[in-house]
Write a structure and sequence with these properties.
Rossmann fold, elongated, 5-stranded parallel β-sheet, 4-stranded antiparallel β-sheet, single chain, about 240 residues, 9 helices, 2 domains, alpha/beta, 11 strands, Arc Repressor Mutant, subunit A
Length: about 240
């Protein structure tokens, strides 16, 4: 008797790779090569943006250039390591001296590839590093708060098993809150991380979107998960029992 389809082995999830590279043409070629090899590839063009994404722990492998604007590659690698992020990291850079390689490995890199390089070698090194990944991607991208779940790979939310339809900004807002679950995040932090504002636009944009988000994730009769902390900001946490 054949096994039912539901019990068949699932195909492995594609590797998710973050490329932190400021040379646009190089970054695009790397992404094309990774996608052709079956990966999902995101790009970050400067150090601060790459650092923010690296700290989420949502990637199977990080590819980092040494010379990037805003924050050098060594710092981009050292900070996630100090925060406990174990994602395998490959430096891809033109800085190929022995001392440069040693500095990269001491900063927390796992491998070092010098430009120019072949895309076949790049993909082989990424695959080798992914085999060292500390946890399956699904485990690291599924966020929980009480009975609310957020699947960062599928970009889908559910409360008590029921899907919650979110607009793109609502998703980003919920994702940031859940990445910081149990911690108060300020209005300024939300404006910067969700909307990209480095100033206060003097509107109620945060309050409006939070109100809409609450209405979607808190079904009738269910305890609210998002709390307003007067004078400080907002926090998502399980309801008090």
């Amino acid at each position: 008797m054949t096994e039912p389809a539901a019990s068949a082995a699932r195909a492995p999830l594609p590797l998710r790779v973050l490329v932190i590279e400021d040379e646009r043409e190089t970054a695009e070629h790397m992404r094309e090569a990774l996608v052709a090899a079956g990966c999902l590839a995101d790009l970050a063009e400067d150090g601060p943006t790459g650092l923010d994404q690296a700290l989420t722990g949502a990637f199977d492998v990080l590819i980092v250039d040494r010379m990037i604007p805003g924050l050098d590659g060594l710092s981009v690698v050292a900070r996630p390591r100090a925060a406990g992020v174990q994602t395998p990291i490959l430096f891809v850079t033109s800085m190929g001296a022995v001392a440069d390689r040693v500095d990269g490995l001491h900063a927390g890199g796992d491998d070092y590839l010098v430009k120019p390089f072949s895309f076949a070698e790049l993909n082989a090194r990424v695959a080798a590093l992914a085999r060292r990944s500390p946890a399956p991607l699904r485990e690291r991208t599924l966020l929980h708060c009480a009975d609310l779940t957020l699947d960062r790979l599928e970009r889908a939310a559910a409360r008590d098993g029921q899907p919650v339809a979110l607009l793109p900004l609502e998703y980003k807002l919920l994702e940031y809150l859940m990445l910081n679950a149990g911690q108060v995040v300020t209005r300024a932090m939300l404006l910067e991380k969700v909307w990209g504002f480095h100033f206060d636009p003097r509107t109620n944009i945060v309050e409006t979107h939070l109100s809409r988000l609450r209405a979607k994730i808190d079904p009738a009769g269910a305890p609210s998960l998002i709390a307003t902390v007067r004078g400080e900001g907002y926090v998502i946490r399980p309801p008090a029992t």
